């Protein structure tokens, strides 16, 4: 498959880009944004054979900036993205991806890791940003949410006391009003983390497509091996690996097939 005609090689370092205008969706997007979005969504395919050439650094950094703009529950962003740039690490990663061509031939490898265990660190850092390091304290419902609700939902301990407490609180509240039903267990927190990581992964793959590059999400991986290779703690869990770069024509294995709209979309 042809590579991108303009890989943004003339653009400045994206690390220094600061968005100053909060432009929210409006009717003008149907002409300014929708055509490109449709082209990106329909053009993104899982490509399994690449030419092995790395994506230009400034382009990849821009795609990663888009990835971290993904929606995130309570904005805690409980994930990490490992951009594999070391040659030795890349060679060691391929077997952990079962030597799938999408990993072995990719120009770049990105490991999306669920990090629910970092919620306290992220909460503190987020609060520092929101309050300008305490100069503008949170107030009202926002303060109550970040200081009380989030710890109540996320805290856990080796004996499961916090899980039991949440289960009781949710059960009691549900008797009189609609209420959330979780998380109440470590398994719930694992699901939570993988959801956050998956949202970031989707943003990343769509951004890669919009920049003219291709990708493949790889779920068949040795998660324990990758965790060990990266030196991650036991509660960190790889969600998937993304192979990215310029795909070869033979890397598209088949025509796109999707279930019918009405099989998946239900009107109630």
Describe the structure.
Strands 1-2-4-3 form a 4-stranded antiparallel sheet, sandwiched between helices. The radius of gyration is 21 Å and the shape is globular. The longest helix is centred in the last third of the chain and has 25 residues. Helix 2 packs across helix 9, helix 3 packs across helix 9 and helix 4 packs antiparallel against helix 10. It contains 11 helices and 4 strands. The chain is of the alpha+beta class and 268 residues long.
Q: What's a quick, concise take on this entry?
A:
By secondary structure, the protein is α+β, with helices and mostly antiparallel strands. It has helices spanning 29-32, 34-43, 57-67, 87-96, 101-104, 119-130, 140-154, 161-174, 186-210, 223-230, 261-264, and strands at residues 79-84, 108-114, 214-218, 237-245.
What sequence of helices (H) and strands (E) makes up the elements?
Answer: HHHEHHEHHHHEHEH
What multimeric state do the chains show?
single chain
Secondary structure: helix percent: 40-55%
Number of strands: 4
* Shape category: globular
Instruction: Name the average pLDDT.
Output: 91
Terminal residue distance = 42 Å
Strand order of the largest sheet: 1-2-4-3
**Gyration radius, to the nearest Å?**
21 Å
* DSSP summary: helix tally: 11
Strand content: 5-15%
Mind summarizing the main beta sheet?
4 strands, antiparallel
Uncertain stretches of 5 or more adjacent residues: 1-20
How would you classify the helix and strand content by structural class?
alpha+beta
């Amino acid at each position: 498959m042809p590579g991108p005609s303009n890989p943004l090689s003339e653009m400045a370092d994206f690390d220094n880009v600061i968005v100053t205008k909060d432009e929210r969706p409006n009717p003008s997007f149907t002409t300014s944004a929708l055509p490109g979005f449709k082209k990106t969504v329909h053009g993104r395919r899982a490509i399994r054979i690449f030419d092995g050439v790395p994506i230009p650094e400034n382009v990849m950094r821009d795609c990663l900036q888009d990835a971290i703009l993904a929606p995130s529950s309570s904005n805690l962003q409980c994930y990490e993205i490992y951009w594999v740039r070391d040659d030795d690490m890349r060679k060691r990663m391929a077997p952990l991806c079962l030597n799938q061509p999408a990993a072995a031939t990719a120009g770049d490898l990105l490991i999306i890791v669920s990090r629910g265990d970092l919620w306290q660190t992220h909460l503190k850092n987020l609060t520092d940003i929101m309050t300008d390091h305490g100069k503008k304290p949170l107030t009202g419902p926002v303060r109550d949410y970040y200081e009380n609700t989030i710890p109540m939902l996320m805290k856990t301990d080796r004996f499961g006391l916090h899980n039991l407490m949440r289960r009781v609180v949710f059960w009691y509240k549900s008797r009189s009003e609609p209420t959330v039903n979780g998380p109440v267990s470590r398994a719930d927190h694992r699901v939570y983390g993988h959801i956050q990581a998956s949202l970031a992964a989707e943003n990343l793959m769509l951004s890669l497509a919009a920049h003219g590059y291709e990708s493949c999400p790889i779920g068949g991986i040795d998660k324990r091996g990758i965790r060990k290779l990266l030196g991650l703690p036991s509660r960190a869990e790889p969600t998937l690996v993304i192979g990215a770069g310029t795909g070869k024509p033979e890397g598209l294995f088949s025509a796109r097939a999707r279930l019918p709209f009405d099989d998946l979309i239900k009107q109630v």
